[in-house]
Structure formats: structure tokens, C-alpha cells
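Quick one:
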Amino acid sequence: MEINEKLFGREQLLQIQLGLGEGLDVSWYAKPDFNWEQMREIRFGLRKGVDVSVYANPEFGWGQMREIRLGLEKGLDVSWYAKPEFDNHQMEQIRFGLEEGLDVSWYANPEFDYQQMRKIRYGLEEGVDVSVYAKPEFDWGQMEQIRIGLEEGVDVSWYAKPEFSAKKMKDILKLLIELKGLI
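Output:
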């Protein structure tokens, strides 16, 4: 493969040279559209023998590529998150859920930020009814308070309302737990 060195920066050329030295098919990433970090992630995937066609796309940042590569290396169904609309932190939360065998359909939605996804994942891990709070209108702090209430076995309908701040929810939860202990 002929490489026009004028099209690439020093770090990009290094990634191409490393790939050639490892006997890899650098045609996957020897393109000026990829920065050196994206090239590195594609090179790592080629080295591991994963299907880099899933993420060898300039639309993915290197962090997104990394999450897709890690999922492919573990044999996960990365179609849940190998989409440019998810940032690398969201992808990581979906990957963690897949690794744990969780039903990621509850949170594999770009409307949730990674912190909301994490709180939903925690609920799935604990076996609580995440349908109560797996809603974009709850921020991650609110989700946390609802999840804790569910884990404590209290009636969260008293405070599982988007109009209550996480702080207000925490105060109500504390009272409900105290009342539960009195009954």
C-alpha cells in the first residue's frame, strides 16, 4: 500500500508504521480522516482480530471506538450502542450492562445521559423495578433516591415525581424509612 506521507501528521504516521510492523491491514485506518487516536483504536482491534468495520468510521471519536472494540473483544452485541448518537460514557454503561447480562433496553437510549444510565443499571443489578424511574424526566440524583427507596422497600409513590428535587426526595425517603421502622 502506497502512503502519501504529506497527508498525515507525525502521530498518524507512527500508527501506520506500527500497524505495518505488526503485519496488519492498515488500509482500514491509513486515511487522513482518522486522527492518530482513532487509528490506534482500529489498530488495536485489528491486532485482537475483531471486526473493525463496525467502528472504523470517522463519525466515532476514539473513546467511542474504544468502547465498541472492548465490546467486540468480549463477544458482546455491540449493536445496542455502536451508534454515533451515544457518547463514549453512555457506551460504557451499556457495555457494562451487557457484560452483566442485564436487559439494557431499559436504558440504551440517547435521551439518558451516562449518569442516568448508571443509576438504571444499578437498579437492574439490584433487581428493583426500574420502570418506576427509568424515565428521562428524572435526573440521576432523583433516580438514585427512587432506587434506594425501592431497595429499602418503601412506597416510593410518595416522592417519585419529577417536580421533587433529589434533595427533597432524600428528605422524604429518610422520613419514610423512619416511619417504616416504627411500624
